[in-house]
Amino acid sequence: RRVPRITYPLVVVRPFPRRANFTIPYGSGEGYRDEDLFLLHPQFATVDLIPYDDLQYALLLPSILRWCFNVLTVMSLRNQLLVGTPVIQVPLELLTTATTAPVAQELTHYQRLETLGDTVLKFLASLQLFAQYPLWHEGYLARRKDHAVSNARLAREAVDKHLYRWIIRDRFVPRKWKPSYVCDSIPSNPPEGQSIERGKEPIPIEEENEVATEPRDQLKRKKKKNQQLSTKVLADVVEALIGAAYEHQGFDLAVDCAAFFGMGLTWKKVPERITDILARSEPLDEPPAQLHLVEHLLNYTFTRKGLLVEALTHASYHGEDAAMSYERLEFLGDCALDMVVTDYLYHAEGKQYSPGHMHMRKESLVNSHFLAFICLRTSTISEATNAFWTPNGGTATTTEHQRIHLYQCMMHSSHRVLEDQHVAFSRFEKNGAVIEQALLHATMYPWAALTSLQAPKFLSDMLESLLGAVYLDSEGNLDAVRKVMRTLGIMEVMEHIVKSDMDVQHPVSCLAIWADQQEPKHKIRYLTEKKDGNVSCAVIVDEVEVIRVTEKYHSRASQEEVRFAAAEQALHTFSVLEEEEEDEESDGWGDIPEYGW
């Protein structure tokens, strides 16, 4: 087809660039493109001659002013609220991130820092209370910590400091941008009693019903400008500031930031608190024999053996060397474990996990089922020399090799604890290898398999108390805790979860998300029944039963086990998950004795 020849001039134009927000990185397709050229007839076009510099000025000015607004807001925070405090050392970049709400839709906001700061705050608050109240048991310590770090308390401290004045929460919309003036307009006729002469400040006239006499549209504008902040936003900013302080200079500056807000606690630096705690530790004259085995299992030698004895002592123990039970150390060790895991996930190279993804991965590493599995798995070979009498040669000796597990080193005086240990380890012997294979090589976290252990809580508590004892004995060195976690295999599992992007969602949650994403959406419910010594769980989709799992009922944990197993099988049925090779069907119990639970 021949294209007609154009014999008249045309105006070659291209549309204005789509990119308007220059505070965020340049995206593809936002600038000029060759195919965006248009040809216009001069007769039907209007040409306005605008200097190129003015065009660039108008295009860039909103973004420049927005950037200046954010920087000046943060500088005002430093110069007015943080002046005279150590927190002023935090760089502007971190302060800007910590005070920017997600609703502002800036390049960075406080959510990741808030997640880190929340863990740092809970860890530091736990340490302060642990040192300040040596006679409080774990329940009192946990309740006092929860009160100190609650959103309501943090929001109240933020309001007292007027922190809300520096929270960046307005959204930047360049295409609807207009400059903000000191006053919207200057009246042509000044009200009686006021002056608008240049260089003179206006003198307002007080009226009794000043608000009532204002026009209705002005009242609406005032109401629109008065934005309400939730207590969570205020609390999140406080936690983000603590996270920023920790990122810049570690726990010392984080303690200074927490002390700035107070929260009803007496704040001291971490080394001071550790010194106070260790000053109350008494040396042992005759340490129990199993301590060297525990030190070998942890690959850590304790300087203060009393801390290790306390970490191994169950509340039921009544021996001669009885010490305080492990609950207090478990309280501290739980926070130390959270701190190590959260710090690793926050700084995971190339990941930049959102708070939700950090929370899911952290839960997969600090839940009681996983920690109990680690406690049951950790073992070593011990040599025992036995002497006996022979009729011919007199006294003789034999050497035996025996495998000692970490859970066997707990000091207790309870027959029920002994039974629980025996039953849990019997289940571990059935399914332990499968669980370990899944944790280190599978693509989905083995929630159902871990739940099938139905391990008693004191196993995970014991492991956390050992981590707390290591932290105190090393004088507050989290690297020593990390080393012990690597010896136990926790760090290896955590690294695999991060590197392989393992699916760590609960199968129940994963199935609910799948159902919500379908068209049309499916309705899922679970039906759990107990009958003839068994417990079963059916997955019902749109009132149709698709999966039913039945296991022998042993305790209340059996209901959670069959629920997880049914959800996992449903995911495989709907091809949400890839099928993996499984061993012969087994409930993981075998000939384990029943105790009439």
From TrEMBL:
The keyword Hydrolase is assigned to this record: yes
Organism placement in taxonomy: Eukaryota, Fungi, Dikarya, Basidiomycota, Agaricomycotina
Positions with biased composition (Acidic residues): 577-588
Keyword field: Hydrolase
InterPro entries recorded: RNase_III_dom, RNase_III_sf
SUPFAM superfamilies: RNase III domain-like (SSF69065)
Keyword Hydrolase found: yes
Renumbered residue ranges of the record's region Disordered: 188-225, 577-597
Pfam families linked: Ribonuclease_3
Domain (RNase III) ranges: 74-250, 291-475
An example Gene Ontology biological process: siRNA processing
GO CC terms: cytoplasm; nucleus
Protein name stated in the entry: RNase III domain-containing protein
Gene Ontology MF term list: ribonuclease III activity; RNA binding
